[in-house]
User: Fold Alpha-galactosidase from Kitasatospora griseola.
Amino acid sequence: MRPPTPRTLLHALAALSLAASGLTAVVAASTPAASAPTPAAALDNGLARTPPMGWNSWNSLGTAVTQQQVVQTIDFMSSKGLVAAGYDTVTIDDGWSLSHRDGQTTDFAKNSYGAMQLYDADRNPTSGIDGTGFDLTTGHLIPDPAHFPAHTVNGQTLNGIQYLSWYAHSKGMKFGLYATGTYTTCQGHPGSLGHESTDAADFVAWGVDFVKYDDCPYGPPITGPDGYNYGTQGEGRELTRSLYARTQDFQRALDAASAAQGRPRVVLSVSAQPVHTGLPYLLAGDDPARTDPVVVAAGTPARQAPGYAPTGVWCGQVANLCRIGGDRGPDLEGVLYNGQLQTALKYPGNVRPGSWNDMDMMFAGWLDPYGLYGTTDTCTCHKPMNDTESRSEMSILAMTAAPLISGADLRTAADSQHSDSGYTWSTGISDSALAVYKNADVIAVDQDSLAKPATLVGSPPNSPTDPLVLKRQLANGDTAVLLVNQDPNSTRTVSTTLSALGLTGPGYSSKELWTGATGDITGTLGASVAPHGVAMYRLKALPVTVPATVIGDGRYHGISAGGTGGQVLEVRGMCSAPDGSTTDINTWWDWHTSERWRFDANGDGTVHITDDCSTDTQVHGTLTGPAAPGGPAWVLNSYDPNSAYQKWRVVQNAATGALTVTNVATGLALDAPQSTPTSAVVLSRPDGSAAGQSWSPVS
Assistant:
């Protein structure tokens, strides 16, 4: 496959062409202001209540994408559990249509800048840089039959795009398609500007569920009357109608088509490139961006027009997904602080159910389709992420509540083979990268219903390699915390504190979402993090505790482990067991003295726990902890008041009355991890969610 032409490169080539010719342009004065329309309310169409998840063809297949490849992708996503994990939308990007509509027999004319040739009222070519000019194309977009052939399904002939929509739906998936609010798409195919009603009606009729709406204004750089070079901003209506307005036009056309056809509404994703500033003196006076309260409140910087960059201000007013940065590459830096993360943190107000800041397609698991990386293609711009970086990318997107849309090649190794210079390789995603995508705990953070994105903890990093910490409040009261090592070469210790996180409780249970490791946090949260790696935690407030009421009452008590059906702590082998016996759980019998325990306070605030045995071998044995996690708790007839292994901290949940028993020497918790009778009682790392670490007095 040939690499798809980067959109930014096409824009740059147009600019270089003009610079080489030494031409400049002078634009007309602004359009007189007209009566202001009613300010628009934020888009709330009931769609995309959580960030959309799925796949987009661009990063791996570019303009060479075919129907067969998309079918292979749908099959792979369905069979490999990606759809079940939430990745339910498959989208075809630029290049799916012919370069003319069905009202023409030849491709539309382009000028020297790659822009659509516009014409005046007499059908004479015009530059369009003063905002005038007409697009003479008519009719419907045509799926390229060479790549997207028609099929007959249930006696009905479906064009190649309709067929893929039907096929995706048959697998329980949704289908997405690409369009632009400009005269041409980024790869030079017909855009939807001026054809909004026609294209929207076709998309809805074809069963499209999701539209990626791009912005590709080709044309010469424009120097205004103020002498300022505004760069390439487009031509004709691209200059007089804001991106806000053009997006709103298409969104309303989609809604109208859905209503007219009795079909579901369509999710709209804006992929606008924030480099475009617009021309304030050409923007129509009645453009809705001028009066939208969100845009007005944000203000418009000098030499910009309302409704252009940054999309993080206005996009949620007219679309469900909002690109906040340019096209990303496979390097992790694109989502780190000096990349799109910093931008995402600036616009939290654009994030809510139905509106999401989009940080571009994911490169997790992407492999170089242009050559065998490191052999036939050594460009660092095509270097794939390793699994550590893939986890980091997904973690940052999840923390910012960004859409999770993969650009990797989600096909089998056989379907995704390439050959070049005598080498054959596959771009199909690896099993380890596939596991990254399917991490349910990380997905749950991304999809959290509170829709409150992450904030930065502490000051911004001073350099691109400094670590950073993010936190995100979740709907059930939990807090997600991400420790990020931005250094690509060195392992770093990254840490924060409960105070810095704004958490005021006495302690929190934690789960690291990539390793599954659990524990309790009472002060500092930290980890040794690999280069370009992360540690991602979900913190849950530990219950309010008080000193246990069993301490110092002079009585012996049975204590039952949670999750064991009422089984209690006992000396293994009962009171006839030898000195140094271990402990287990067993059925509660109140006359079994081996199942009864007394809790006596030590002078240092700790607790001494003894059994009720009084035999030749067991004489009020002292509960003693092992040195390492997973080892069984045991009982010794002798008691050493200086041994921390024989001392415990026992607290009681103020709400439930359950006890937590923690060894002073190790900080490990008394745990019954198995429910089978006579299963060992061990010491484990504290985990507030572990039932076996919750002990309830039964006598």
In short: The longest helix spans residues 243-261.
